[in-house]
Amino acid sequence: MSYNLDNFSLKLNTDEIEFMISAVEQFKILGYTHAAFPVHKLCDADSVEFFRSSMDAREYCFVMTDGKQYFKSMPTAELHRDLKTVMDSGLHNAINKVLDLTQAAKQLIEKNQTEEINLKTTVMNQKNLDFLADQIKYTGFGEALQPALKEQLEKGEKEFMISHEANFEGGILKSELNFKKSDQSDLYFFNSYKAMLHKEGEPHSLEQIFYVGKENNYTMKEAFNLLEGRSVNKDLVNKQGEGYNAWVSLNFKDAEANGNFKMTHYHQNYGYNLEASLEKHSIKELETPKFKEDLINSLKKGNIQSVTVVVNGEERKRFVEANPQFKTVKMYDSSMQRINDRESKDQKKSESQSAGVSKEVKKGQDTEGESEEAGGKKKKQSRRQGASL
C-alpha cells in the first residue's frame, strides 16, 4: 500500500523549537544531510532521526512506515531554514503548544518573498518615477507634471499620455508627452512628445513630434523656436555614433512619412559664424564679454534676443535672431518689423565713419594746438635772442 506524503507535515511542540534548532545545527556540522520524522504524531528532538544521505533517510522511512505510522524525510538544510523562519517571526510564541512547522514556514516564506518583491517593486517604481521626472524637467516641462506622472505610473497601463501647455509671446505651445511600458520589465520610458503651436489668427496649428532618447534631444523651448521658423544650434550624433555640430531648422514645405516636417541641417562645415555675423552690426552688448556670451548662447537656442544698437549716436532697442541659411542674422526694430541687412550695415558703417571723423577732428585739434604752442615758443625764443643782442 502506498501513501502520498506530500501533504503530511512536521508538527512540533513549540517549547522544543530552540532546542531543535540547536540539534539540527550540530548534525549539519557533523555532515548529516537529511532528516526523517513521523508525520502522525507530535514530534520533539528525540523523534527526528538524521542521516548522511538521502537514500539512507528514504530507506529508514520505508522501513518505519506501516499501516499505523508514516515517516517522511527532508534535507537538513530545509528543516533548519523552516525552524529559523518560525523562530525569527516569533510565531511560536503567539500560538498554542502545537505548531505545524511545514505549513507555518511555507506561509511565512511566501509572505516574506511577497514583501520582498513588493519592496523591490516599490523601490524600482520610485527610481523610475524619479528618472522620468528628471527627463521631463530637463526637457523643459518643469516639475508641475510630477503628480500626473505618478498617478499614471500607479495605474500600470501599457502606455499613457500627459498634456502640457505653455504660453509664449508668439503663441501657445501645447504638448502631448508619450510614455510606454517596456516589454521586458515594468519600467516606463518617455519616448516622445508632440508639440503643437497655436498662433493667434492662424486657423491651423503647426505640429511636430520630437523623440526623446540618449542623444539628439530638443527641449520644449527649442521645439517652440523651431516651429516659429527659427534655427537651433545642436551638438548631434549621427547613425555611426559620430558627434557633430549643426544649425537645425524645420522645412515647412517638405514632410516625412509620419507627418513631421523634415529637418534641415547646416553642418559646421557650412561655414556659418554667428559671432562674425553679429559683429557686422553696431550691437552694444558685444562690447562686454559676459553680455556677448549670453547673447550668443541665447541665439544658439533659437531665441529672438533683445539688443541695444547705436544709430546716429543714439541707443535704440532692436531684436536679433540667427539666420544660418544666409550666414547672417535677422534684425528687427522695437515693433518687431524686419530691418533689412543693407540698412543695418549702413548704420554700422555710419557709426564707424562718425567715430572716424571724431578721431580726425580730435587729431586735427591736437595738431593745431601743438602748432600754436610750437609757434609761441619760437616767437618767445626770438624775443629773448633780440633782447640779448
From TrEMBL:
Q: Where is the composition biased (Basic and acidic residues)?
A: 339-351
Under which name does UniProt file this protein?
A: DUF3945 domain-containing protein
The UniProt annotation puts the region (Disordered) at 333-389
- Report the source organism: Flavobacterium nitrogenifigens
